[in-house]
Write the structure tokens for this entry.
Amino acid sequence: MLIRSAYLTKIVSLHTQLFVYIFVFKYFKGFVMLRKICVFTAFCALMTTVGVDVAKAQNEVAAWPSTASKGLAYSGVVRMGDLVVVGGVLGQSPETGEVVAGGVLEEGRQAFAHIESMLRLAGATLEDVGVCRVLVDDINGFAALNTVFKEVFPANPPTRSTAIVPEIPHGASIEVECTAYAPN
């Protein structure tokens, strides 16, 4: 309903703009350049306003299963227009599905390997990531987490929120969720 409301607002705005351009076009026949500007502006307004809103109204949402865990009841990665969200990922072995040994450092490396593969499914890369949310089960894991972040994001790292939690599923030490902006 919200998309339709925004779409109708844009259409009304577009109609008002077109009315002004037609008025100028009709009554200022001697001003050739002004008339050309009005036609060009009306065309641009039509293409951007209607084109963008029609794309939004078509509800561009795509989802892929997790590459880290099979058979989950939710998507591993979802693309909503230009926004790509990777759900909580554990550092699980792709072969066994078990959490890898090595605590935050090794689990973090494995989690980001999964995140990178899921971002690729949705047409994004690690360079497109703007924010990461991380759960760790021990405050002493911060140094290892920073090491992993420096390896994964050597330049322009994303923002990060980290929460210390008492327990993470499957006995993991870390869980990572990322959001990326990747225009189509």
